[in-house]
Amino acid sequence: EADIYQTPRYLVIGTGKKITLECSQTMGHDKMYWYQQDPGMELHLIHYSYGVNSTEKGDLSSESTVSRIRTEHFPLTLESARPSHTSQYLCASSELTGGSSGANVLTFGAGSRLTVL
Amino acid sequence: RKEVEQDPGPFNVPEGATVAFNCTYSNSASQSFFWYRQDCRKEPKLLMSVYSSGNEDGRFTAQLNRASQYISLLIRDSKLSDSATYLCVVRPTDSWGKLQFGAGTQVVVTP
């Protein structure tokens, strides 16, 4: 059973549309992340959060934005989708501390596969 | 140069055989190392952490070589269910909590 939920699982949408990918976790984790992954490629961190009202940009430049108003919820928004945004988006969470384990063990959602036509 | 590099494979392995593969990392100050497993079109899941002295978890053995900056994963007595992509994950000390993922090594176990 999943402790971190992503919706929608699949989305096909036209260019210029606004989309929000939802991510919720029930584990009480402080840290949450959004990764982007193309087939056969590594995960790229696009956004992360250390807790409520904390958001940071990741290593990969992204036109998306995130918010963290509640601990359990970390939605990602694209104001105007483009074909270059076609990818899989993976949400993850972890504990805040725990140097050798907690903070390093990510639990991933099942992913949102976005196709922009 | 990528922070974490892996041979993409695929490694085609007969059922019951042993397979091993490495992952190299560029930041010599990296502190924590992990192997995650990702099935086709699924999310990554933690397989095991990698400790300095090496560690085993059932049929899986992980090793760390700090001098040469690589970690390895060995799978003994391969099962069909071991077919997956294995992601090498490293945490550099200067980016607490921001893990670096390799692109993965694909393993295909055949009957």
Q: Could you characterize what this model shows?
A:
The complex is a heterodimer of chains A (117) and B (111). Chain A is mainly beta and 117 residues long. Chain A has no helices and eleven strands. Chain A has strands at 4-7, 10-13, 19-25, 31-37, 44-51, 54-57, 65-66, 76-78, 87-94, 107-108, 112-116. In chain A, strands 2, 4, 5, 6, 9, 10 and 11 form a seven-stranded mixed β-sheet that branches. Chain A has a four-stranded antiparallel β-sheet with strand order 1-3-8-7, with no helix packed on it. The N and C termini of chain A lie far apart (33 Å). The model of chain A has no long low-confidence stretch (mean pLDDT 91). With 111 residues, chain B is mostly beta strands. In chain B, strand 4 (32-38) and strand 5 (44-50) form a beta hairpin. The interface between A and B is medium-sized, with 24 and 21 residues.
Features:
heterodimer, A: 117 residues, mainly beta, 7-stranded mixed β-sheet, 4-stranded antiparallel β-sheet, 46% strand, B: 111 residues, 6-stranded mixed β-sheet, 5-stranded antiparallel β-sheet
Topology:
The complex is a heterodimer of chains A (117) and B (111).
Chain A: E1 4-7, E2 10-13, E3 19-25, E4 31-37, E5 44-51, E6 54-57, E7 65-66, E8 76-78, E9 87-94, E10 107-108, E11 112-116
Parallel strand pairs in A: 2-11
Antiparallel strand pairs in A: 1-3, 3-8, 4-5, 4-9, 5-6, 7-8, 9-10, 9-11
Chain B: E1 4-6, E2 11-14, E3 19-25, E4 32-38, E5 44-50, E6 55-57, E7 60-65, E8 70-75, E9 84-91, E10 100-101, E11 105-110
Parallel strand pairs in B: 2-11
Antiparallel strand pairs in B: 1-3, 3-8, 4-5, 4-9, 6-7, 7-8, 9-10, 9-11
Derived from helix and strand composition plus strand pairing, the structural class of chain B reads mainly beta
Task: Give the assembly state of these chains.
Answer: heterodimer
User: Approximately how much beta-strand content do the residues of chain B carry?
Assistant: over 45%
Please count the beta strands of chain B (DSSP E, at least 2 residues each): 11
Distance between the termini of chain A: 33 Å
- Put simply, the count of helices of chain B is 0
Identify the biggest protein-protein contact and residues per side.
A-B, 24 and 21 residues
Helix amount of chain A: under 10%
Pick out the low-confidence regions of chain A: none
Mean pLDDT of chain B: 92
Strand tally of chain A, please?
11
- Alpha carbon gap, first and last residue of chain B: 37 Å
Largest sheet data of chain B: 6 strands, mixed
Silhouette of chain A: globular
Main β-sheet of chain A, in a few words?
Answer: 7 strands, mixed
**Strand portion of chain A, in percent?**
over 45%
Q: Which outline of chain B best applies?
A: globular
Q: SS-based structural class of chain A?
A: mainly beta
Helix-strand pattern of chain A = EEEEEEEEEEE
The mean pLDDT of chain A is 91
- Note the total helix count of chain A: 0
